[in-house]
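Lab channel / #folding
Pinned by the channel admin:
"Please post every new chain as: sequence first, then the structure tokens as a reply. Keep commentary short and put observations after the output so the thread stays searchable."

First post following the new format, from NK:
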Amino acid sequence: MTDISLPLTRYTAQTHMQCLEGLVSRYEHEEEPVHYKKASTEKSESTCSSCLSYFNNIGLLEAEKQGVYTPPQATIDYYTKIGKSRSEAVQQISSILSEDPVFQEVKFHLDNDELDLAKLAKKTAGGLDINKSEISKIERAIEIFSELEAVTIDEDNFVSLNSGKEGKEQSSQAGLDQSKKDTQEELPIGNPRDPSDINPEDLELPPTKGDPESLHQLCNQLKAGGKWSASELSDVTEFSKRTVQGNSRYGIELGFIERSDDGYAPTQRGYDLGFETGLNETTEEYFFEGITESDIYFSLLSQCLDRAEREKESRAIKSSYCERELRTTFKFTEESEDTLKAAITTFLQTIQAAGYGNYLVGRRGSETRIELSQEELEDLKQIRNTVERPTGETTIEKDVEPEGDEKSETVEKQDDKKRSLNQINKEESRDGPPLRISSFRIQNFRNIQDSGEVRLEPITTFIGKNESGKTSTLEAINSFLEDSEYQDRDICNDIEYESKENIPIISITFEITEDIAEEHYSEDNLIEDFPVEYRITKYADGRIEDETELSITPPSPEIIYYDDYDLISDELYFDESEDQENSTFWNLLQIGGLTEKEITKTTGRTHDQAIESAENEIENQLNEGWSQKDLQIKLSYSDRDNCLRLYIQDEIHNEERGLTHPSQRSEGFQWFFSFYVNILAETGGDSNGYKILLLDDPAVHLHPSGKQDWLESLEEIAQEEQVIYTSHSPYLIEKQYPSRIRTVEDSPDGTTINADIFDADTGTLEPLRNTLGIDLSASPFVSEGQLLVEGPSEYYILSAVGTYMDKVLDRSFIDWRKISLMPVRGADDVIGKASWLESENLEYVILLDSDEEGQDVERRINNHHRHIDDDQVQLLSRRPHDEEIVIEDIFDPEFYVAATNEFYTEINENFEPISINKEDPNKWKIGREEYEGQRIDEILVRELERQDIAEELENEDGEIELAKRPIAEIISERINNNEIEPDDLDFFNEVLGNVTSKLDL
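Reply from TO:
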């Protein structure tokens, strides 16, 4: 059966289809081949990889290269067309499937007999001589054929061929078109129904399960038509049955879903919601109508607005208001706090989905709430009216003038700029912008006399020898926390002091751009000259000084320091002491939304559903970060022992293996699993700004492939949080991002931190080089293949360009797992390094400028160093020129000149930016010089010589050299931040293509 493709049974037919639809959607958006990782919007990357591989094997996708697919037109039309065009797409897909051996055999048996799914799969296996153990996979393939409408599986599981039938989507679309002809009366905001007919005591508790996004997904499935049971919806949506039931009740309350004895079906509003792409302005109207038509939601909203006015806080609907009203006005006195909290959460999320306010989760003493603008508040007041109270108490409507409205938007500046962090936090609550640390400076802390200003990236790696000061660096940053106090031993021994009052320890700088400020602050406060460097310093006596006078107050950073990684245990015992020592297991329950009460105090179906829901949620979140395995989680509670036990199941070679305890797995697996559980729990979305994660020597026990997984998970984490970590392992250093690496060295003057890995002493890099088997004068990185470049400038540039093309443009020229860049000391040093690589039998390519020096090296290799393969030498070129091209010429010249201007403007405020104008497709005017694609570096030097500040730019020999290396670092940073257009890199396609073609890997 070597030519027969079968899907994996662990993924449902619906999951396969979701992956296919995700790829088609991405292809339609980008109009170029799609990598499976970019198609994994709803499913994990490993799931998408397996499912899409199957569709490629049966002809419904075309592989451009491994893992990169283009859908044929029939597959595109299947998801994007309706009516006759879609029916034609279904027929074309059936025609494509007819080339698949499994479908051919299925069709043969169905032409001769009527069979149920099990018998058909068995006969198909026999006809194709497939092992009986694979029959379940054949059943899954037939289910996929059914999803593709090539066959039909009826309620009794009998299978029949489809022949020219119009697809389900067409019929449901026709039903939608018909239903849209029926108009509904809109509920005018200013004229709501009379609430006096509503008796609060007759109302049911608001839905405690459900949320707008999940309801939208449910309606998206229901729109296909027919009646659906909770089990059927659970199967096709991969929600747990409990989640389906909760969202269905929520949808019924809001008028999106109706229920009969036959199951669930959408109302007209539900059809409309299901056909929307996500939640948007149109769906806001649907949710608003649902709120005003729901007795409990309409009444609760009215009471909360009354409460807000009475308490003079008319710009928010707080969870405390909701709870008071539910317990008093609506008499839900017996319900637990958790039950009411769940109902309130759903209620507040619904208000936001209706287009009103911003839903905020409470933190640091603040409440979970909906914050409203004044305009939104006035709109809601128009639908609010008094609700008859059961006690006979009357509510007098008030037209209250907002008090202190501007007070929450502007804060009177203090004359004393030295404000403590306590004072900042005690000011009125506001939404701060998501800030990351742009730089820090450590002084007078242990062996760090003065680190100088150290810039940070979204992910920053500190490398260095033991006792060099890496841990002290992290602990100094962590000491910025308000409750951290300095002991005498924390203060540098080299300074004398009588008082800690004026000894600075840690200064942190944030950069606030105008975009961030406009998004998160009132326009009345935007009086700054952006971007703003916002700087705070903490002193040895604990005082924190705000060094920047701003009209806006950013939040203090939330720093989380990890130096001890608690491994997950096999079991968790509940007792009266509520022992919290096993923090990782408790965090596992937290991300699953599972409480001790649900585990120990519920029974039967309620208990089982709570466990199942938690298992599903934990699996969904963990599989986003663990690509080596597709994990399944099993939680088992023993009432006799009052103990919850954890089991894990995954695949080996595409086959599921049995349940095991964590302790039965490798230490590396336990570490990664525990790390990701703790990170998910700590970064649970309850912060107004970014968290700063400090990780001291993480992932040391992981296998190299596990380390790679960990690095990839950091990229995901860094979208929301900032990560700073130390490491000794070469596998935990991302060589494609040299700008993220900081070396830490111990010197006679104390610890120094350097952003340039090539300026580090040999001892700092020696552990890496020795581990990798490379001599001390070479690059800190080595792999199966080496790309030798002339120096650090080329290293920074090609690292950034290669990564950008791989991750943004999906052009994988450089496989960083197999190829390393090795910068040497100019073209003359190339021959020695190439000879060493030859002696080690390593693959390599030499990339040289095609200037006189590069051509001379090529000639020397050809004439005198025959042991070096001259085919491995690649000279730079840029059409139509083959000579006198340097790496700087490969960029679009306007992009390179802009980076040059940025560097020289930073170092000298009197620098006059060099102009550039395009005169024709291949000619530019740079300053006073004509440029046609050759030696932009020499032209820029001549322009620098014409500057009034030319003498200040001269080196010790009285000459001006172009600062290629710092300019390359600026370019690297711009590319890594996607501050570039693909056209700026057009000529790199040919350069990198030639390089990779020469590497036999």
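NK: The chain has a mean pLDDT of 77.
TO: also worth noting, DSSP finds 34 helices and 35 strands in the chain.
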